[in-house]
Write a structure and sequence with these properties.
The chain has about 180 residues and is of the alpha+beta class. The protein contains four helices and ten strands. Among the domains are: about 70 residues, Roll (2,3-Dihydroxybiphenyl 1,2-Dioxygenase, domain 1); about 55 residues, 2,3-Dihydroxybiphenyl 1,2-Dioxygenase, domain 1, CATH 3.10.180.10. About 20% of the residues lie in helices and about 35% in strands. The protein is globular and about 50 Å long. The relative contact order is 0.13. It comes from Dactylosporangium sucinum. This is VOC domain-containing protein.
């Protein structure tokens, strides 16, 4: 094993707790100005990508209608499935045209998950939709009565507006 691989395996993120022995706990200090070159990197294995992100929704069909009918995503899968204890559910995946990570639309199962619908990231923007032709996209969202939470503004990474999806989650609409 190379020294780089050893450093990666033993490194913890700043502020993480490190248990050295039963009952003891130490914290690694946070260093916000750590140069990128000093951050350990894992060996390159290749073939890695984020495939799906779960989005908890109240019901499948309104979520499908929003992502497919409003945002133009592709419905990749919609198949019957069962929970680990045998109750029926669906496996529903939507993906932006042209690829990229997809969304697994998962119906909330129980009070705990239901309480998270629309607030999966604690009130902050949690999803980012980068588009060509920002003005066209923005106008389409308005025409389709999508709730715009923050009007367009110019940032260093492009023009951005914030909207809510059908479940209430916040998204950045970002254009170059």
């Amino acid at each position: 094993m190379t020294p780089s691989q050893v450093r990666y395996q033993t490194a913890l993120r700043p502020g993480a707790a490190l248990k050295l022995s039963p009952g003891s706990q130490h914290t690694i200090p946070h260093h916000p100005a750590t140069p990128r070159s000093s951050i350990p990197t894992p060996p390159t294995l290749g073939g890695v990508r984020i495939d799906l992100v779960t989005l908890v929704v109240h019901e499948y069909d309104p979520a499908i209608e929003f992502f497919v009918g409003v945002l133009g995503f592709e419905l990749v899968e919609d198949v019957p499935s069962t929970t680990t204890d045998g109750r029926p559910k669906r496996w529903v995946v939507v993906r932006p045209p042209g690829g990229g990570a997809g969304l697994l639309l998962a119906r909330a199962d129980g009070e705990r998950q239901g309480a998270r619908v629309g607030d999966q990231t604690g009130g902050r923007v949690g999803f980012f939709l980068r588009v060509e032709r920002f003005d066209l996209w923005y106008n389409v969202l308005k025409e389709k009565n999508v709730r715009i939470v923050r009007e367009p503004r110019t940032e260093s990474y492009g023009t951005v507006a914030v909207f809510q999806d059908v479940a209430g989650n916040l998204w950045d609409l970002i254009g170059d």
